[in-house]
Amino acid sequence: PLDSTNYATWCSDIKVVLLERDCWDIVAEREAAPVVKEGDEIDARKLKEFNLRFNRAYTTIYRNASPQYRTIIEGITNGAEAWKKLKSLFQPDSKARVMALKHEFFSTGIEPDESIGLYASKLPA
């Protein structure tokens, strides 16, 4: 589950799950609910299938977050909104965040007997 240390890998893992469940385009906001045009009849099956995937997107994100982060998104039922809310929490797009990450990167040194893999895992995502 998502915790305070694994946002980058969690994102990748959940994206794969959402792709497998045919929900990623909904979360990425590339797919919207079928629209009923005046005079047209919408296919009830298509709408039901979309609503199922729409709900599945949110529940997948919710169920794969640790309890402390579930509270942040529990009032939301839209997977795309939940995704954006978590992203804004873990990846704020500010100059201060960029400067803090640069500082953390340059202050993280490799130990003499440390493998490159272990060193890389200590770097901020």
UniProtKB/TrEMBL annotation:
Recorded superkingdom: Eukaryota
Database matches in Pfam families: Retrotran_gag_2
UniProt lineage: Eukaryota, Metazoa, Ecdysozoa, Arthropoda, Chelicerata
Name of protein: Uncharacterized protein
